[in-house]
Amino acid sequence: MEDRVERIKKQLHTAGYKLTPQREATVRVLLEHEEDHLSAEDVYLLVKEKSPEIGLATVYRTLELLTELKIVDKINFGDGVSRYDLRKEGAAHFHHHLVCIECGSVAEIEEDLLEEVEAIVERDWKFKIKDHRLTFHGICYRCQQKHMEEQNEK
Ligand SMILES: [Zn+2]
Ligand SMILES: [Zn+2]
Ligand SMILES: [Zn+2]
Asked: What's the pLDDT tens digit per position in 110-148?
């Protein structure tokens, strides 16, 4: 955790920004909730628990800055809410998501499954890929199991 805060601090410095206490509070919330996909409001409520003096506008600006610096990625799962997702360290491209349409759970695939597709796009469309978003919408394993159990009870 401390290492990652330190590395994010360096990334900010390189880009000419300081890791102010407000920014650090936001970064720490993102690191503590790395598995989650928090909206700006979610982040704000969590920041407020520890640093009640920080306002929503400040948190929002910090999230935008972190997005600009590619420390976080912004993603929308189709519900109209922008969510902020820490980029995996060293990953060239954004990770993939599996969104369950029944329970709303979100799982992450860190491995880039698109490398072959990228090669085709770059070759056939002469398009230089910088990043991508891949979200699968479907039914998670747990919900499938639940359906099986319901079937068996009938
Ligand atoms: Zn994610
Ligand atoms: Zn990729
Ligand atoms: Zn589910």
From this structure: 999 999 999 999 999 999 999 999 999 999 999 999 999
Contacts of 84 (CB under 8 A, 6+ apart): 30, 37, 38, 39, 40, 43, 63, 66, 67, 72, 73, 74
Q: What is the pLDDT of residues 82-117, one digit of tens each?
A: 999 999 888 899 999 999 999 999 999 999 999 999
Q: Tell me the CA–centroid distance for residue 7 and ligand 3, in Å.
A: 35
Q: Between helices 56-68 and 21-32, what is the axis angle to 10°?
A: 70
Ligand 1 centroid, distance to 98 Cα (angstroms):
9
Which of the four pLDDT bands, split at 50, 70 and 90, describes residue 79? confident
CA of 110 to the centre of ligand 2 (A): 10
Tell me if 111 is assigned to a ligand binding site.
no
Q: Kindly list the structural domains of the chain, giving each domain's residue range(s) and its CATH number in brackets, ordered by start.
A: 1-88 (1.10.10.10), 91-154 (3.30.1490.190)
In this prediction, residue 153 carries a pLDDT of 86
Whole-number Å distance, alpha carbon 76 to ligand 3 midpoint, is 18
Q: Say whether 93 counts as a known binding-site residue.
A: no
pTM for this entry: 0.85
